[in-house]
Each structure stands twice: as structure tokens, then as C-alpha cells.
Write a structure and sequence with these properties.
Layout (H helix, E strand, L loop, with lengths): L26 E6 L2 E6 L3 H4 L5 E5 L1 E3 L3 E6 L2 E10 L4 E7 L9 E3 L5 E5 L7 E5 L5 H8 L6 H7 L6 H4 L7 E4 L11 H9 L3 E7 L22 E5 L1 H12 L4 E4 L1 H10 L9 E5 L14 E5 L6 H10 L1 H13 L10 E5 L1
Parallel strand pairs: 1-17, 3-12, 3-14, 4-11, 14-16
Antiparallel strand pairs: 1-2, 5-6, 6-7, 7-10, 8-9, 9-10, 12-13, 13-15, 16-17
Catalytic activity: 7-aminomethyl-7-carbaguanosine(34) in tRNA + S-adenosyl-L-methionine = epoxyqueuosine(34) in tRNA + adenine + L-methionine + 2 H(+)
Pathway: tRNA modification; tRNA-queuosine biosynthesis
Family: Belongs to the QueA family.
Length: about 350
């Protein structure tokens, strides 16, 4: 499909620079079949049914944004996928000044050697020393805010260390937050449980590839970056049992959805899964493992807007986004939510 089919006019002032406070005070646009309703995130328990199951991504964002020097050249690196105990694949700013074997000094006693330049301009970075890389990143790294936010705010600050982690964040390894889950608070979770709605978690370490624009003219020519995920056997069994009993599996975030769909077989059974997924969902895709999605509002011509168009229909989503823009909903990672029930 032509990428321009997923374009729309998004005023830049609709991109939220800070989250709602408290988190569950955000607005929520509900698309339930043919109905469209303006609600709030706190209305979620009444928008679902007893017996439904929400599925959250429990990945934890690491401080994966690094600024360093190779000689007198400034080098920026955004880690996006772990390739070994001390090796990360990274997108590099000013990469033309970098060659295989060069050492980058990120300060605070943190250095890494660059190698294996990829066709996308990324490099493998091997971190020196014996300390766990996680500790090195805590010293030298910053929270990797999406560029659409960071460029307007001058980068991340201390607030983002809390704002950009979800209530469920446990498994360190993501370089972007599963942002739909940023709306959840203990109070909202208590209301969800009281309404008879269950929840489970899985792990997908979100990569910086989620921020990359689609540069191809046709979706067939776009290459998704792989991300590592895991669904254990008890979680797979629980998701299957919910649907067998007549409940719905509602993915919280496109990351949860993509992993569930990667793990679901042709008969609609979720299987245990551990490994990489590069699934790219566009209109025409037949969903097998989920019955709905809670997600934030996405950018024009993004892979995530293509995904929600596959779930609800392109014309339906374009009309919904026109409604959201006119209604001053807040977009992107720190923005408002939508609940999509086809």
C-alpha cells in the first residue's frame, strides 16, 4: 500500500510534551464498533466487560541516550537492541565521523568501541570494562525521549526518569516506553479489578526503531527493526482460557499487540514465545490473538497508524483522528489514549 494513504494533517502543538497529572486524568477516545465516544482513561472499567483481560508490557526503559566524543568529533548514540552481554546495536548521530575500531568516550568512565556498521547507518557498540552495562548507562546515559518531544524540550530531564516508566516496568531493556500503559495508576488498577477485569503481563523490549519514519513510498518496501520479546507458558495459557470462556483479550499498547500476534498460531492459539519479532501490521492483516487495543494517538504515515488502521479500517481511523484533532486531544507518547474495539 502507498504510504501517503496514511497521511493526515497534525498540528505540531497537538504533540504532548508532558503527561497528564495524575496519569489516569488523560482523555480517551473510544471507538466501539461503529460508535465513537469521548471519555476519560478513568472510564476504562465501564468501557470493558467482566471477564475481559488487559495485557501489559512489563519492559523497563533504560537510559539509552548517550553523548560522547571520538577525538574532537561529537558522537551521539541511541541504543536500540542488545546483541550480547556487552554489545548493543545503536543509531549514531554524526556517524560519518566514525569508523570500525574507533573508541567513543561517553564520559563518567564509560567507553565503547564501534564496529559492524549496518546498511541503516547503525553501529555495534562494545562497552569496555567489567561493570554491567546497565550500571554504565545509569552513569552516562539519559532517558531516550522520542525526538518529537526531545527536540521541543531540549532533551530529557529528571521528571522523565519517572514519567517515562510505566506502573508495570520490571524487565530492563527497552529504549522506548510502552506508552499506552503510562496512563495506569494503582487506583485505576483497583477499579479495573473491582469490575471483574483481569490483567496479565508479557515482555517486549521496545527498540528505537519505533521512532523511525517510514521512508519508503510503499509499505512493502519498509523494513521493521526486530525487537526481543517473551510470553511464558502460563501467560499464553491464560490468554487462551480467557477467549475460550468468552472474554476478550485487550492489548494495552501496540507493543503488547505485536508480540501477542507474533505468538499466535493460525488457529488463534497463543503459544509460548521467546525471541525476536519484526512483525509489520498493515491493512489486510487478519488479527488472531487480540480482540481490542488501548493505545495513544500516533503520527502521520507511521507504522503504528498503519497498525490501528488495520484493526479498525483506514477511513474509520482517519475520521477518528480528525475528530481527535478538532477536539484537542493530545498526541503521541505523553498524550491521550484511544480504546479501539472492532
Amino acid at each position: 500500500m502507498h504510504v501517503d494513504l496514511f497521511d493526515f494533517d497534525l498540528p505540531t502543538d497537538r504533540i504532548a510534551l508532558r503527561p497528564a497529572a495524575p496519569r489516569d486524568a488523560a482523555r480517551m477516545l473510544v471507538l466501539d464498533g461503529d460508535a465513537t465516544r469521548d471519555c476519560g482513561v478513568r472510564d476504562l472499567p465501564s468501557c470493558l466487560r467482566a471477564g475481559d483481560l488487559l495485557v501489559f508490557n512489563d519492559t523497563r526503559v533504560i537510559p539509552a541516550q548517550l553523548e560522547g566524543k571520538r577525538g574532537d568529533a561529537a558522537i551521539g548514540a541511541t541504543l536500540h537492541k542488545r546483541e550480547g552481554p556487552r554489545r548493543w546495536r545503536a543509531f549514531v548521530r554524526n556517524g560519518r565521523r566514525l569508523r570500525d575500531g574507533d573508541t567513543i568516550d561517553f564520559g563518567a568512565g564509560v567507553t565503547a568501541t564501534a564496529s559492524d556498521k549496518g546498511e541503516d547507518g547503525s553501529f555495534a557498540l562494545d562497552f569496555a570494562g567489567d561493570e554491567p552495562v546497565e550500571l554504565l548507562l545509569e552513569r552516562a546515559g539519559r532517558m531516550p525521549l522520542p525526538p518529537y518531544i526531545a527536540s521541543k524540550r531540549g532533551g530529557a530531564d529528571e521528571r522523565d526518569a519517572q514519567d517515562y516508566q510505566t506502573l508495570f516496568a520490571r524487565e530492563a531493556g527497552a529504549v522506548a516506553a510502552p506508552t499506552a500503559a503510562l496512563h495506569f495508576t494503582p487506583e485505576l488498577m483497583a477499579a479495573i479489578e473491582a469490575a471483574g477485569i483481569a490483567h496479565s503481563t508479557l515482555t517486549l523490549h521496545v527498540g528505537a526503531g519505533t521512532f523511525l519514519p517510514v521512508k519508503a513510498d510503499d509499505t512493502d518496501d519498509h523494513q521493521m527493526h526486530a525487537e526481543w520479546g517473551r510470553i511464558d507458558a502460563p501467560t499464553a495459557d491464560r490468554l487462551n482460557a480467557v477467549r475460550a470462556a468468552g472474554g476478550r483479550v485487550i492489548a494495552v499498547g501496540t507493543t503488547s499487540l505485536r508480540l501477542i500476534e507474533s505468538a499466535t498460531d493460525a488457529e488463534g492459539q497463543v503459544q509460548p514465545f521467546e525471541g525476536d519479532t519484526a512483525i509489520f501490521i498493515t491493512p489486510g492483516y487478519r488479527f488472531r490473538g487480540i480482540d481490542g487495543l488501548m493505545t495513544n494517538f500516533h503520527l502521520p504515515k507511521s507504522t503504528l497508524f498503519m497498525l490501528v488502521s488495520a484493526l479498525m479500517g483506514r477511513e474509520r481511523m482517519l475520521a477518528a483522528y480528525v475528530h481527535a484533532i478538532a477536539g484537542e486531544y493530545r498526541f503521541y507518547s505523553y498524550g491521550d489514549a484511544s480504546l479501539l474495539l472492532p
